[in-house]
């Protein structure tokens, strides 16, 4: 008889302390995670990032509910996956769609409050009030002597020893009747002490702050803008007024001139309208849109044709060394794609590449692979076919092996040859189960960003486009170039194009699911 039973104790009592400690540790960990998310909520809220604050508020609340209620214990195991999907998939998608309805760009990046602070922090040097200065050495100490002529009167000031200056605090200067005694240091010594002089802030008896304005002068540095009660700003240099325009997200002058930086504002459907109505954007967009579909479609056709043909050959009974051929043909699939792309980029080099060297020696031609739009697109299809055919080869080999051999024997009795078997038996039988995978391959190549970026970078460019657009760009690379390579970095327009891409990919996914006979 077990010892617990002999003492009259239940069997489960011996495990109770461990379970209790585990439960308390889980509660403590949950509390720490909730506190951490609440701290992030406050941090993002104070920085004005309300969307991120809302995200972590939802995460913290859901974490407390799921791990705080025993009734929801079964949901604890799937919660990390759902939280990760929310943070890394759903939230970026919603955030991107939100940006597409704004003018968010490199010119409209900060909040209105931060833009206002930047303007109020700007200073300018007052003209006609500069003091010429000299460095005077008195034994081991060095002073600044300043002199200026204002309204026919000479003003002289002298500072305390520079060694007494404290970082971050201004150094006072006092009136002087004449230049103090000592050695006047030359320009070489002034240049050697330039960093020290630039860090100085001198305060006159009248309270004016002076800063270094050159190698020979200190001048008053005054605030450039002053804030008015109605929210506008006044330029103290010339008295002009800057008014905040909440429709464009800029401070504008009386003449309508916009001053950067600005702040993001809602623009409704302007970004989507611009895609289809602005001729300088619509033309390149439609050209890239059509090329994206053509590129993805031809890639699927070419890779399927090559993969299917090679898979059929590998099923030939009279072929010897199938294992060696299979390994060699699948080898490109094992090499990282970016390495193969960079190798092909060197081989297609118009001046020194091996491909042009062979073509010139054999046929006397030297194509402009990177400058001619047609040749650049042909090069992309060639390289992408090389990268994608091993995947189709593996799929076709697996599907061909599932075809009953009786069909081929019956075809042989009727006089059918290898070509007849391939076209009338093999291809129709594998095409239906292969269709969802072909659609998935189409969606992948629809967003094949790596190939375009590493091989052509989108070049050659489309002439007359107001945005960075190339004849070999896909929609995804076009969006990237608008967001990160354009001088204006129009994130709102790029987000609108990304949203359209998302809708297209969703449509392809729904079609894929329906063809796979999965209920949506």
Walkthrough of the structure:
The protein is α+β, with helices and mostly antiparallel strands. The protein folds into four domains: 86 residues, Methane Monooxygenase Hydroxylase, Chain G, domain 1, CATH 1.20.58; 55 residues, Roll (MalF N-terminal region-like); 100 residues, Periplasmic binding protein-like II, CATH 2.40.430; 239 residues, MetI-like fold (Orthogonal Bundle). It is 54% helix and 12% strand. It contains 18 helices and 14 strands. The strands form two sheets. A seven-stranded mixed β-barrel has the order 2-3-4-5-7-8-9. A hairpin with a 5-residue loop joins strand 11 and strand 12. Helix 2 packs antiparallel against helix 3, helix 9 runs parallel beside helix 13 and helix 9 packs antiparallel against helix 15. The longest helix is centred in the middle third of the chain and has 36 residues. It is elongated and about 125 Å long. Keywords: Cell inner membrane, Cell membrane, Membrane, Sugar transport, Transmembrane, Transmembrane helix, Transport. One of its GO terms (cellular component) is maltose transport complex. It holds the Pfam family MalF_P2. This is Maltose/maltodextrin transport system permease protein. The complex is composed of two ATP-binding proteins (MalK), two transmembrane proteins (MalG and MalF) and a solute-binding protein (MalE).
């Amino acid at each position: 008889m077990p010892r617990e039973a002999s003492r009259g104790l239940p069997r489960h009592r011996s495990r109770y302390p461990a379970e209790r400690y585990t439960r308390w540790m889980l509660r403590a960990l949950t509390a720490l995670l909730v506190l951490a998310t609440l701290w992030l909520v406050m941090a993002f809220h104070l920085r004005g990032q309300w969307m991120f604050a809302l995200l972590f508020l939802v995460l913290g609340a859901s974490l407390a509910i799921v791990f705080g209620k025993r009734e929801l214990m079964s949901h604890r195991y799937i919660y990390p996956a759902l939280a990760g999907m929310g943070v890394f998939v759903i939230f970026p998608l919603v955030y991107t769609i939100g940006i597409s309805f704004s003018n968010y760009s490199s010119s409209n990046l900060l909040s209105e409050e931060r833009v206002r602070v930047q303007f109020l922090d700007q200073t300018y040097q007052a003209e006609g009030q500069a003091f010429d200065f000299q460095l005077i050495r008195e034994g081991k100490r060095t002073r600044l002597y300043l002199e200026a002529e204002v309204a026919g009167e000479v003003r002289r000031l002298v500072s305390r020893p520079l060694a007494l200056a404290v970082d971050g605090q201004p150094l006072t200067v006092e009136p002087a009747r004449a230049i103090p005694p000592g050695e006047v240091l030359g320009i070489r010594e002034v240049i050697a002490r330039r960093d020290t002089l630039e860090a100085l802030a001198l305060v006159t008896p009248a309270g004016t702050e002076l800063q270094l304005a050159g190698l020979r002068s200190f001048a008053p540095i005054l605030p450039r803008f002053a804030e008015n009660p109605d929210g506008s700003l006044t330029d103290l240099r010339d008295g002009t007024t800057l008014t905040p325009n909440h429709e464009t997200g800029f401070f504008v002058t009386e003449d309508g001139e916009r001053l950067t930086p600005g702040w993001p504002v809602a623009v409704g459907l302007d970004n989507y309208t611009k895609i289809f109505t602005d001729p300088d954007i619509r033309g390149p967009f439609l050209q890239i849109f059509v090329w994206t579909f053509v590129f993805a479609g031809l890639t699927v056709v070419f890779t399927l044709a090559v993969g299917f043909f090679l898979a059929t050959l590998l099923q030939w009974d009279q072929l010897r060394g199938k294992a060696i051929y299979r390994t060699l043909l699948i080898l490109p699939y094992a090499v990282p794609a970016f390495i193969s792309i960079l190798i092909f980029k060197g081989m297609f080099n118009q001046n020194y590449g091996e491909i042009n060297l062979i073509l010139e020696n054999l046929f006397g031609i030297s194509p402009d692979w990177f400058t001619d739009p047609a040749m650049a697109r042909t090069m992309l299809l060639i390289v992408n076919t090389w990268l994608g055919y091993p995947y189709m080869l593996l799929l076709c080999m697996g599907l061909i092996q599932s075809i009953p051999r009786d069909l081929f024997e019956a075809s042989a009795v009727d006089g059918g040859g290898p070509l007849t078997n391939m076209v009338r038996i093999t291809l129709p039988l594998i095409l239906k189960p292969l269709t969802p995978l072909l659609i998935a391959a189409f969606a992948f190549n629809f967003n094949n960003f790596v190939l375009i970026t590493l091989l052509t970078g989108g070049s050659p460019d489309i002439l007359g486009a107001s945005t960075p657009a190339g004849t070999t760009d896909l929609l995804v690379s076009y969006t990237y170039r608008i967001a990160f390579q354009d001088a204006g970095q129009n994130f709102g327009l790029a987000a609108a194009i990304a949203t359209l891409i998302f809708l297209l990919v969703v449509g392809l996914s729904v079609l894929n699911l329906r063809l796979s006979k999965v209920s949506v």
